[in-house]
Amino acid sequence: MKTPSALLKIHGIDTELLFWLNRHSHIRTIGFISRQISRLGDGPLYAAVGLMVWLWGGAAGAAFFYAGLAAYALELPLYWVLKNSIRRDRPKKGVRDLNALITPSDKFSFPSGHTAAAFVFATLIAAFFPMFAPVAYVLAVFIGLSRIMLGVHYPSDIAAGAALGVLCGETALYVMG
C-alpha cells in the first residue's frame, strides 16, 4: 500500500525537526543533561512524589494520589495499545546519520510514553497544586525534548504523548469528580 503524500510531508517535517533538535546532542554536556532529564520521566519520581503527597498532603494529597492511580491506569494501557498498533519504528532505524545516545526500552516510538507520563503528572499537579503548574509543565516539555535530543523519538511522538497524557489526566480528574 502506498503511503499518502500528506503523511510523507508530515514525516519529512518531523525528520527535519528531529535533526534540528538532535544535532548538538553529541556535545558531552548536552548529552549528559538530556539523559538526566529523560531519566526523570522513567516513572519512579512520579510514584515517590505521589506517595509523599498522599502521606503528608492531607485530603488534597489523597485525592491527588488516587487521581494519579486512575490517570496512569488509563494512560498505560492506551499507550501500549497505540504503540503496538501503530508500530512506528524508532528514528535510528529509519533515519540515517542520526545520533542516538541511548538504547530505548522497546522497539516502537509512537507515542512517547515518557512524555505521556510527564504530562499526566503535570496535569494533576496543575489541578491540585496550581502554584507548581508552570514548573510541572516545563519539566514535562523538557522530558519530551530530551527524548528527541537523545534520538529515540520524533517530534510528533512527543506531541502525541503530550496529548495522551493531558487527556488521561483530565479524564481521571473528571471521573474522580
Automatic annotation (TrEMBL):
GO terms for cellular component: plasma membrane. Keywords: Cell membrane, Hydrolase, Membrane, Transmembrane, Transmembrane helix. It comes from Neisseria brasiliensis. It is found in: Cell membrane. It is a multi-pass membrane protein. Pfam families: PAP2. This is Phosphatase PAP2 family protein. Residues 66-173 form the Phosphatidic acid phosphatase type 2/haloperoxidase domain. Its main location: membrane. The chain crosses the membrane at residues 45-74, 116-145. InterPro entries: PAP2/HPO, PAP2/HPO_sf. SMART domains: acidPPc. It comes from the Bacteria. SUPFAM superfamilies: Acid phosphatase/Vanadium-dependent haloperoxidase (SSF48317). The keyword Coiled coil does not apply. GO terms for molecular function: hydrolase activity.
